[in-house]
Structures are given as C-alpha cells and as structure tokens.
Amino acid sequence: MKKLILVALVSLLFQNASGQIYHVSASGSDRNAGSSTQPFKSLSKAIAVSISQQGKAVTIEIAGGTYPLEKTISIHSDDYKASSLLIRSRENEHVVLKGSEKINPTWKTFRGKILFSKIDLGENFDDLYLDGKKLHMARYPNFDSTARVFNGTAGDALAEDRIKTWADPSGGYIHALHEGEWGDFHYLIKKKDAAGLLVYEGGWQNNRPAKMHAEHRYVEHIFEELDSPGEWFYNKKTKTLYLIPPSNQDVKRGTFYITRHTELISIRGSLEKPVRHIKIQGIDFTETSRSFMQVREPLLRSDWAILRSGALFLEGTEDVSVTDCNFYQLGGSAVFLSRYNKNVNIVDNHIHDIGANGVAFVGDPAAVRSPAFRYEEFVPYEKMDMAPGPIGKNFPQDCYASGNLIHNTGTIEKQSAGVQISMASKILVRHNTIYQVPRAGINVSEGTWGGHIIEFNEVFDTVLETGDHGAFNSWGRDRYWRPERQIVDSIVAARPGIELLDIIDPIIIRNNRFRCDHGWDIDLDDGSSNYRIYNNICLRGGLKLREGYNRIVTNNIIINNTFHPHVWLKNSRDEFSRNIVTTAYAPILMDNWGAKIDSNYFLSEEALKNSRIANNDVNSNYGDAGFVDEQNGNYRLKINSDAFSVGFKNFDTDFGVTSARLKKIASKPQIDALAVKKQHVISDQTEWLGATCKNIENLGERSAAGLHNDNGVLLIKLLPGSIAEKNGFKKGDVVIGLNNNVVKNVNDLQKIYQEISLEGKIKVDIMRNQNAMQLDISLKD
Prior knowledge:
Blueprint: H1 2-15, E1 19-24, H2 43-50, E2 57-62, E3 65-68, E4 73-76, E5 84-89, E6 95-98, E7 100-103, E8 108-111, E9 114-118, E10 128-130, E11 133-137, E12 139-140, H3 160-164, E13 173-178, E14 184-192, E15 198-202, E16 212-220, E17 231-235, E18 240-243, E19 256-259, E20 265-268, E21 275-281, E22 283-286, E23 297-298, E24 305-306, E25 312-323, E26 326-330, E27 335-347, E28 350-354, E29 359-362, E30 396-397, E31 400-402, E32 405-407, E33 419-422, E34 428-430, E35 433-435, E36 442-444, E37 453-455, E38 458-460, E39 470-474, H4 485-494, E40 507-510, E41 513-514, E42 520-524, E43 531-534, E44 537-538, E45 543-545, E46 551-554, E47 557-558, E48 563-565, E49 575-577, E50 580-581, E51 596-598, E52 601-602, H5 605-611, E53 621-622, E54 627-629, E55 634-637, H6 660-663, E56 686-688, E57 691-695, H7 699-705, E58 713-718, H8 723-726, E59 734-738, E60 741-742, H9 746-756, E61 761-768, E62 771-778
Parallel strand pairs: 1-2, 2-5, 3-6, 4-20, 5-21, 6-22, 11-17, 20-25, 21-25, 22-26, 25-27, 26-28, 27-29, 27-30, 27-31, 28-32, 29-33, 31-34, 32-35, 33-36, 34-37, 35-38, 36-39, 37-40, 38-41, 39-42, 40-43, 41-44, 42-45, 43-46, 44-47, 45-48, 46-49, 47-50, 49-51, 50-52, 52-53
Antiparallel strand pairs: 7-19, 8-9, 9-18, 10-11, 10-19, 12-16, 13-14, 13-16, 14-15, 17-18, 23-24, 54-55, 56-57, 57-58, 58-59, 59-60, 59-61, 61-62
C-alpha cells in the first residue's frame, strides 16, 4: 500500500508541476528555441537544454514521428539542475526512438538471388532492418520460427567438413546452449588457422563453465551460409553488403537501418548524488544492437552473467517512473536498473521481442558481505563477515514493476528473465503478464536482501529453450550455503541464524498464476530461504522446494501435479499445509521433513495414501474439491466444497495486466482438463554392491543431482557395511560411468560391471552434490 501511495504522489508531482515546456518535432531545428511553433528537432537537444534549468519543473513534449539517435541520450547527475523532468509524447501521437541509422545501399546483382552493395558501414553495427523488420545474418541452420532453441540448431554446425567450406569465417559467431541447458554461450570467430581449425573467443556469458551443447548450436555471419531469403552478410574488409531479398519484396524501394547503440536513454547518478524526479511516458524504444558478446559480469554463485545495459538504463536514481511505453526489437535488455535506484516505477509498458531481460534490478556486489561469485566458491566461515544485511545501500530498493506485458524475451541471451532481481531489496512485482521466455518468467537470484512481493502476475509459456528451471525461479546460495548438506546442517546447528544473514526480510509470492510445461511452476532451488508462498495457482509443473530454510507454503492450488520436496536440511522449519494437491508428492532424497506437512487436500484417495510419508499429512483429506469451473480455469471453491475442511480459503484471482490497452492484446495460459486419476508409479529398482539403485527418470531427479541429461543410476539406499558404503559411496550419488564407459541406466550398469568385475578395482564416475567426482573402488570386502 505504501508503494501505491508513493506512485500516486510521484504522478501528482508531475501533474502539478509548473514550469518550462519544450517541444520536439522531426520537422523542427535544433537552432530553434524549442517552443510549440519553433520546436527542436532532436530529443537530445531538448534534454540538454531542459536539465540545465536550475530548480525548474520541465516538460518535453515530442510530436509524433521516428527519431533515430546519433548517440545515446545521457542524463547525468553532474549536469542535472532541474527540479523535475517529464518526457512524453504529444497526446495521441506515436513517438519512436531508434538506436539505428538509416543507410542507402545501391543494389546490384552478385550471383543468382544474391545482391550486393559497396557501402562503408564502419565497425560498430550489428543488426540490419528493412522497413522496420529485422533481417537475419547468414546462418546455419537457417532461421526457423518454429524451432524450439535459437530458432534452429544443428549438431553439425561446427563439423569439420562444413568448416572446410568457409574461406574466411572471421567475424562470424558461434551460439550454443550450455551442455546442461542451463544457459547459453557465444563466441566470436577470429580466424581459421593453417590447420583449418577455428580460432574463437567468448564463452564468458555463463558462470558455470561447461562444453557447448552437442546439438543445440548454430553459426552466423559466414558468407558461405548466405542461402536463404532475408539473410545478409557484410564483408568489413571489402566494405560490401550482401543480401538475399525477402520473398515478394522490392528491396530497391525499401528503407534500411543498421543498429548502432545498445542504450537509447541512459540516466546515471550515484547513491551520493542521485538523479531525481524524472518521468518517461508514451515513448517507443526500438532497434538497439545485440549485446551478447559484452555479457561478462558474473552474478553471485550462479550460472548467470550479465551486462549492465538496457535500451533504458538507470543507475543512481530516485523517484523515476516509466509508464505506457513500448520496448521492442531490442538487442539486449529493455529496462535495466543498476546499483542504487529507489522509488523507481516501471508501469504499464509493453516489452516484447528483445534479446535479453525485460526488466532487471541488479545491485552492486560490493554491497554484499563475504561475496563469492562461482558456484563452487565460498568464503571460509572463520573469515566470514557475520553482520546481517548489506553494506551500504548501493542497490535497487523500494522499486515497482507493475502492469507490464512482457513476452518473447531472451531471443539471443537465454540467461535472462521477464523480470530479473539480484542484490536488491523490497522490489514489488505486481500484475505483470509474462510469457514466451527461454528460461524463467520471474527470477530471483540469491537471497540478498529479500523483502520482495511477487503478486497478481500471470506467468506461462516459460523455460522454452533451457532446462531445470521454473516459471518462477530462485536460488539462495547465500553466505551460509554449501552444496554438501551435511556441512550446512552442522554449521547452522553451531551458528543458528547464519542462514538468514542475507535474506533479512521474507520474500512473498502470493495471488499469482504460474504455468511451466518444461519445469516447475514455482521452483525454489539451491538454498532458497525465507519465503512465504500462498494463494497461488500452479497450472502444470507443480511446486518445488529444494534445500533451504523457513519456507511457509499455504493455501495454494496445484493442478495436475504436486509438491516436489528435494533434499531438505535438518530443522529447516519448512511448512506445507492447507494446499489443494492433485497427485501424490514427488520427494527426492528426503531425510528431513521440516516443521509441518499436514492439513492438505488431495483430489484422490490414492494421492493422499501415497503422500503419507514419515507421519506427514495425518490430518489431510481427499475428495472432489468442488471448483466453480475448472474447465475454464476458475478454481475458486463452491460454497459447499469439502476442501474448506482443511482450512483452505478462496482468494483473489485477478491475474496479469490491468490497463485496457494491454489487456486487449495479452495472451492467456492454456487450461488443461483435470487429470485426477493420474497413477503413482513405483520405479523398478536393483541392487549393486549393497546399494539400492534406480534409473534417472524425471526432471526432479536430474535437477537434484545436477545432471546435464537423463543418463545415470541413482543410489537411493546403502546397506551398512556394504562394499558400496566401504568405498565411500553416499545416498544420492549418481553413477554415470564405469572405467570410462558411459552408464546411461541400470542395464548399462549391470552389463558393464559384469565385464569388468574380475579386475578387482574399478574407476567409478559419479555426480555428488551437483559436482562430478571419480572414485577408485575395491570390489573385495
């Protein structure tokens, strides 16, 4: 409520502001005075004049038209003298800011359908647009709008025979998914050496190094791959642009633009000297350069790396609002809030078809106590800063992303989200509709510093190109966390409260509707702690809690799926109660069951029976929940519903965008028929060296072990004194190889073992705590 009042006050400030008004028109001149009759021609000129007005409230009104920017418009605190600044389009007129430059190629026939033009485009450009439509660099495989990953990938993209056909691939790019499908890699090809091998640089876009995915890869901007309508190639050495015209289009009459900038408007101040009271309203931001090769800064203990950049970039600001704008056809992020930003409101914008994040809130790692940056890194406990919370305030706080329609993001950078939050405090993410994203719709990195409220969002069609994520996704690899559960258990027992030093305020997830067909609807991963999750509808992927502390999950509805508890810690204080659940729980490696798993309502007797593990759900019930209209997605309970017996309560289901403009064009998630009779399947098991083991069968088991694929055999029980126990195996290990032979399943394990067992000693490759290890074992007692 305080945030809503603040938004109203900020709007009132601009409405009541009296002061200078400057006008901008594409037909004006920067030698004019900026009046309504003598407008400026460029927004940059109007801003330069406006911000110099000492103590004045200034309005810049822009006439309808397209405004290509010669350079990024910069507003810096050293130059900002105005008391407030409103930048808006003229009422009912369409204003477009472009990070691109018009070019005038003279086309001639090269050979076949290929045209060429001798034209000097310089070094700093990345994308080519024809009449407002993006054309694609020459690529293999060719662009396919229906392909799931990267719009087309192929395992032979870097095949030796293909590389032989490339005379000079320098300046080309390699794009690939991470081997585990956790994100992406990008490389710039420098040359082909004397041996015919590619020399390239890059791969720094992912903070958990691995091989490129064997299948999901493609190459672009290589002349020999110019073979499809709408593709182009530019030879910088000869200054020649080549193009195969799009089908049924006369390019000689077309208008061409090339991108020049990754940022259109940059507002930069600091914690000590912020830029204050700016409002941007009714502006289109489009055609910025792709930024994937500049993505190098690692986020804390994750597989993420970022670039602090966006079409609209904010750093060191207070009381800024961005409303009713459109962001589209962008090479990187749309809106990026870096380091200190307070009371910044991103409201009712349409963000779509962009290369990276929709809206990102990312603080300064220098504000984090005892930070570590790689998954496998940690600060020794004896050297750790034990003070709670951040150092200083150089991070986004009390900011607001509401009512935004965000879709088709991450078109090039798969390590991205509709809304991304990292090293921030008290961010309100409310009434957004988010879909068609390669990874999570909403992502919260690490626990620093909590206090976020995620509410009334509609998030679906997520995790479309990556793996092991959710529509909502988080991790909490904070100061206390280690991959080894036993170490975490012992440290938290010895130092109670250490687990909440970074996540000092609970994160609330409430009144949202999530759907993920390729992961979990709500996925709290490694160490995510201090969450309150209630009044949500999970439509497809269920709700997962991996190890962490103090998660209270109540009054949620899980349709056609269930609760996924993974590898919990001792005395976690977790609770799961008063939820409606369709199928039986799907626990993985659960030795500890938190504070309370009870008083839930199941949609079948079988689901309840198979969920009563370790004395849980003693007071739970089952039956027909009595939804008002489940076929059309109305999961409110009828007045006589038996599900009220466990304490469940109906809740507000006003999901997604609220503005009339965006509601008209926003998509809706698919609603499936209720599958109540889904059977609980008990997996086949076998014995090996005194250990009970089974195949990897689902995404949950793959996620818990940190596997890159479904190969491997999971050890679920070890007999005391067995060969397996004596040789150092542990419950939860996954055997992936024997003597350098790949173990895909139980049959492989048994077959390979029979062939090598007479050797007496063997090497066993395993995954433990999401890390690869090798054990030298003796087969003798």
